[in-house]
Design brief:
single chain, 382 residues, alpha+beta, six-stranded mixed β-sheet, five-stranded antiparallel β-sheet, 41% helix
Length: 382
């Protein structure tokens, strides 16, 4: 079923999504997931993200692989599964972005089995929950988060004070998030993190502390260098300086913090969109002349979550995990990275290493030609 839908509305009040097509003559056709509670939607790209930011009420292209519609209404032999190429017309801005394996989707189109909610989503829900105008909010109609599992894990991992949370703070934040989510979505399976699981989460953060400390030193030294855009003839010299600092601090040239810094260097020129998401490196790092450890923590927390999601995609693909965020910057960075391959290596002590290959698109480095981008990848060892 191609090019069928010209307008879509999303009704999330039910246990599954319903896409409603209204024809010019007023005829209504409801499309539901086929043998599922959610749709299989092809992820959107970095360029489609930028296009969606040009309008206060964007229209997004969607391709759905498991749709179902009454055969009597479509004129087809079977109700489904159908492939639907559609355009989703929103009545307002995107309330949250779903980071999925291969790109992004607007909330709630990305939702399958488990949704990890980052801090800005949970806090927005908390504000909605306590708002006297809650009944007029779009959150209940759009979230559609009452079908499967909601996880407050990322909310607790980030911590409230722009630094690594203690075990006590993590327990408080988990309880805070669970209270909000269970109150707003009583039908949802809100993840209750046990003491053992919480301590395992904290160990994950602590094990990452040495890497985070080195990356913090890198950003506090290098982020001020990329605040101002330099002329084309000076960019490679600045790149060499960033890579020198990274080597001094034992941060890999192919790491996400270094890629974000280089994105700041090579984002001058070639940017057709004025939104900050058009420069993903700057959108994530937010460089300034005086860059503190707290500034670095915010950026590294986002990048750490992306690394964590890559591991989750590898180990739990059947759960179709999604990270929901309201931060368009980290959405842009994720979409422009374009991970193309993951490789699992088993180490000693039952540890596993995941190696990820990134395509590094022109979205990250708009001022580079394809040839120059290939040369940069070679210098980074990618």
């Amino acid at each position: 079923m191609n090019n069928l839908l010209s307008q879509l509305a999303v009704d999330c009040a039910k246990r599954h999504l319903v896409l409603t097509y209204v024809a010019d003559d007023g005829k209504i056709l409801e499309i539901t997931p086929h043998d599922s509670s959610s749709f299989d939607v092809v992820p959107l790209s970095f360029q489609q993200l930028l296009q969606s930011l040009d309008s206060p009420s964007p229209t997004l292209p969607l391709t759905i692989h498991n749709a179902s519609a009454p055969a009597a209404a479509t004129g087809l032999i079977a109700d489904g599964p159908l492939v639907v190429a559609a355009k989703l017309s929103l009545n307002g801005p995107i309330l949250a972005y779903g980071l999925v394996d291969g790109g992004w989707l607007p909330l709630p189109m990305a939702f399958k089995r488990i949704a990890l909610l980052d801090r800005n989503v949970v806090i927005s829900l908390e504000k909605f929950h306590s708002s006297p105008n809650a009944k007029n909010s779009n959150w209940p109609n759009w979230l559609g988060l009452d079908a499967e599992t909601l996880s407050p894990m990322l909310f607790a991992l980030e911590g409230p004070n722009r630094k690594v949370p203690t075990d006590f703070q993590m327990r408080v934040e988990l309880n805070r998030a669970v209270k909000i989510l269970t109150s707003l979505f009583p039908a949802a399976k809100v993840q209750h993190v046990s003491t053992k699981q919480r301590k395992a989460l904290l160990r994950t953060v602590l094990q990452h502390s040495e890497t985070r400390t080195r990356a913090t030193r890198l950003l506090t030294k290098a982020a001020p260098l990329v605040v101002d855009r330099v002329k084309q003839e000076h960019r490679k010299k600045l790149e060499a300086e960033v890579l020198r600092i990274a080597k001094t601090e034992y941060v890999g040239a192919d790491s996400l913090p270094v890629i974000a810094l280089l994105s700041c260097i090579y984002d001058g020129g070639g940017v057709s969109c004025s939104h900050r998401a058009a420069t993903p490196g700057r959108a994530v790092l937010k460089p300034k002349s005086s860059y503190s450890a707290e500034d670095a923590y915010n950026a590294l927390a986002d990048l750490f979550f992306l690394e964590l999601m890559l591991h989750i995609f590898e180990f739990f693909p059947e759960d179709h995990p999604v990270l929901y965020t309201r931060d368009v910057g980290i959405t842009a960075f994720w979409s422009a990275l374009q991970p193309t391959q993951r490789q699992r290596t088993h180490l000693c002590n039952q540890r596993v290493k995941i190696t990820v290959t990134f395509r590094l698109s022109n979205g990250l480095f708009p001022s580079l030609t394809d040839t120059e981008l290939g040369a940069l990848k070679h210098r980074l060892g990618l």
